[in-house]
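Researcher: Quick one. two chains, 479 residues in total.
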Amino acid sequence: MGRTRLRTLRQSGSLKLVFPKRHTQDVEAVLVNTAGGITGGDRFSLDVDIRTGAALTITTQAAERVYRAQPGEVGHVTTRVSVADGASLNWLPQELILFDRCALRRRLEIELAATARLLMVEPVVFGRATMPEILRDVMFQDRIRITRGGRPLYIDGMDLQGDAATHLARPAIADGAGAMASIVVVRPDAERQLKPVRAMLPQTAGATTLADDILVIRQLAPDSFALRRNMIPILELLSNGTLPTSWRL
Amino acid sequence: MAMVGRIRTRMWRRHMNTEQDILTMAQWFSPSFPVGAFAYSHGLETAIQSGAIVTASDLQCWLSDVLIHGSGRNDCILLRAAYASTSDTERALIHETALAVAASAERLLETQLQGAAFCDTTAKVWDMDGQHLCYPVAVGAAAAQMQFDVDLVAMLYLHSFAGNLVSAAVRAVPLGQTDGQSVLAALTPLCDQIAGASRLASLDDLNSTAFLSDIAAMKHETLQPRIFRS
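Model:
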């Protein structure tokens, strides 16, 4: 397996991709939103094909802020990545930070071929803790769909509508947590990572395997800093130490 | 003379529930129907051991979120999709969707084993095809075959789901029997509301914000000691 190279790149508007030089076989792509955030009415879409045997890590330059939207306007972020046989994707964006009165529909679709590999993280922060930003009236609809060979493999979604702060304070919901992350690993040795990962988790997190080759981690934390501090060693382990520099504290 | 190529002998009833239909639904969702529901706590046992659920009001709060924002609503969506499905291929996709949306290994076990037991029993008693499906998908498919009213089936499904978890908590907390019944009575209007609200939902609406319920289900895998399978 040789080096991964870029075949085609088309970009327009405020979503840019930059490719830092790395001394590894895989390619790292950093998403840059030159608009500095997302607001109502914005439309972002990203379409990526990873061909046979290629390895791509995608991250973001910074945490993505979802600002207050004008009434009736909804932002849309749609990402589709297909990963061919023998190829791998590390989908490692930094946090999505929801502000009060944001309105966003987000969708991530990852299509895996039979022998494709995946490491995915999706961190969401419920308002900036330092302000403090309280989510009294938001609209956030998130969908994550991972398929393999066209069949559903992992489905997750989150709907927040209205007073999210009160909702998230409830004991079976988030017990007042300010940040959450989901991690999904799809690869043959996923089951073997379960035990070491569990040993690294705080009380407000859980890990499970949905099959021998699918590991899922869900973690809540008081704020984005605590979330990051807990997640970094886990992501270092799961990415074999190739976590993008933008992820380091 | 016109030829009749094929005569359908099956008589299709309208979606009007006869008294017998209602009694059959009551049978499916009774605790004595052999799906083994009593063995599963849906992660509740973890929340009880960690002290998140101590009183009847804690239980009511926790279960109402599981019903409205977690598995309850999602199961309703899956049940309705299976009810509306028109082919084995479509049902297989809904079954796979149900597996993909399961939050943990034990949740998978819970929906697969109860579904398999439901399919086995309905195959023998009501002559259904017996193909193993996840529990809500199996119920939806069977209800369609019986021409039952799907709103009523969805409501009863949720009510039995809630009743089973209340009964698990009565044993594990422990709570008094009367407290348990009060919690179930308080959850009853929700079953009606959620079943109704899921009428227009599609599989794309599957989502959960019952994060700590899902985390509790994951942590149950290593909980010691434990009496439930989930």
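DSSP finds ten helices and no strands in chain B.
Researcher: Thanks, that's what I needed.
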